[in-house]
Design brief:
lyase; 22% helix; rSAM; 6 helices; TIM Barrel; 25% strand
């Protein structure tokens, strides 16, 4: 059983898969309490424990086969059985995580690692890195990263709106470090879920 706060169909708005039609499975709970969290109701609000079969039944209502499991923090739970179950049903499974327990999602097809503590970064177990940037962020730990995986900077939003100063800082950093990429929360710009 998995604590599901919602399942919905929309467009992936962030990172490598931005722009794809996606089925989102949002799980309840998080090990952090970030003051900039844009999903606080999903860490403290209501949820329903659902089986793999119940989740699959809801996903089958839509034509896409790209599933994003997010939260809260999905690696609070061992999701490998759910991931393998969905993969056997023909779904590509992506996960967005702060890296709490990467072993809980190792079966995933794609892992977006969005760490909040930049001083203790996992070296493997993910496909892309995404850092939430405030215009006053100390990016010193990012300068030491040498890797081949995509590294995205995403402007910290103000709830459901983009913050102009944070966007400008990300653009400035990417122009200084052209190996980095910009990830805008496209769904917020489009005002869709």
């Amino acid at each position: 059983m998995y604590p599901v706060t919602e399942i919905f169909y929309s467009i992936q708005g962030e990172g490598h898969h931005s722009g794809k039609a996606a089925l989102f499975v949002r799980l309840h709970g998080c090990n952090l309490a970030c003051d900039f969290c844009d999903e606080p109701s999903h860490t403290q609000g209501e949820y329903e424990n659902q089986s793999q079969e119940a989740i699959l039944e809801q996903l089958r209502a839509y034509p896409a086969h790209f599933v994003v499991i997010t939260g809260g923090e999905p690696t609070l739970f061992d999701l490998n059985p759910l991931i393998k179950f969905l993969q056997k049903e023909g779904y590509f499974v992506a996960i967005e995580t702060n890296g709490y327990n990467l072993a809980h999602i190792q079966a995933a097809d794609w892992i977006t690692y969005s760490p909040k503590n930049w001083n203790t970064l996992a070296k493997e177990g993910y496909d892309e890195l995404k850092f939430i940037i405030h215009h006053a962020s100390d990016i010193t730990p990012l300068l030491a990263l040498f890797q081949e995986k995509p590294l995205y900077l995403q402007p910290q939003s103000d709830g459901s709106a983009l913050n102009a100063a944070n966007v400008a800082r990300c653009v400035e950093l990417i122009l200084e470090h052209p190996e980095w990429r910009l990830s805008l929360q496209t769904h917020k710009i489009l005002e869709i879920p």
